[in-house]
Amino acid sequence: MIFWKNSPDLPSQYFPDSRFIWNQATETLFSELHISPGISTIIAIILNVGGRPTTSMIMNEIQLGAAVSLAQSLGLNRDPVDWNISMPEKCLRMKIWWALIVHDKWLSLAYGTPPQIKRYQYDVPDPSLEYLTTKDATNAQIQAASVFMALVTLTGVLDKFLDHVYDLNQDRDQDSGQTSLDLELSLGQWEDSLSDDVRRIITRGNNLHIPGAANLRLAYLSTKLLRRRIELDIEKQEDTVPGDSLTNRYIQVRRAAEEIVLLVQELGETHLNDFWLPVSAFAFTSAITFLLRCALETENTAGGLAQSASLKLAKNLIDSLQSHQQNSGWDLGDLCLAQYAEVVERLLTADSPSATVPEFQQLMMSSEVPIIDELFPNLWDMF
Question: Name one GO cellular component term (predicted).
Fold first, then answer.
């Protein structure tokens, strides 16, 4: 429904009520789950969970859980390459499983809940052009398939990061340096495995005209931000007395957040109308949360806070999201704007330049913090 107005084949003057259609689809989906669930049910759930805008996190988790359970009961978690079935059916089964993995891991990052699929529970191979394209595929189709392949393999890297975040039994005081190195190595090896064209997408922001490329770059920057925050969390546990090493970690995280801000500023109409994972919206709230808290930690007065580089970056992100919302109807920034637009404005226009920062810290704490941030309590000990 979100792409209706951009389709040349659909009448723009007869735009249907998306809320009504959404409710009808959900009602039909649950009826099918109860009466005769099958592969088509899983596809319907993927379309439902991947729909925009995101309206119910709990319902998305419930539906995804049902899809994962149903997929495993139908054997979609097993490698079908050597099975005695047609090639189109093999490809369909694998594509469904890849889509489930992508939604499971990125919903986990956005919602702050552990992923439901474990790597040792499936043996479906990573996607390749053989399974995604036909022999007469155009160059555009091959490029789009390459972006999807990169997204799926990046999701595998994210899974390793999530294992660290959600492991409640690990002793993080032991081998913390090795943990940080392992995570950095995983992301670095993934970057090296990419083709030249795809590597330019994630490292330099080139070729964003390829379908799914802008979403892939945002996913990469979100993973990079998560990695920096994990490293900062480890550093804060090791350093009882703040020093240059800790300061450097803060700078690295801020730069990772800044890359997300710059990406949003560079998005054009074509990029905004491209495919986006709905949970990408949480990348903006996560980035701005860290920027605001960095600003609050490093400044002691409202006057100094208004001049903070971190707060200016947060303002730039808000301005860009508002521009995309007003000019293109882009909905992915709605959550961030609803939570932080007023907060940023109040921090920038303090009535008294000499007001103390704790007054604004209370303002920040009254705002809803993205759930994943609660898993990094050490980052916010100053509050």
Answer: nucleus
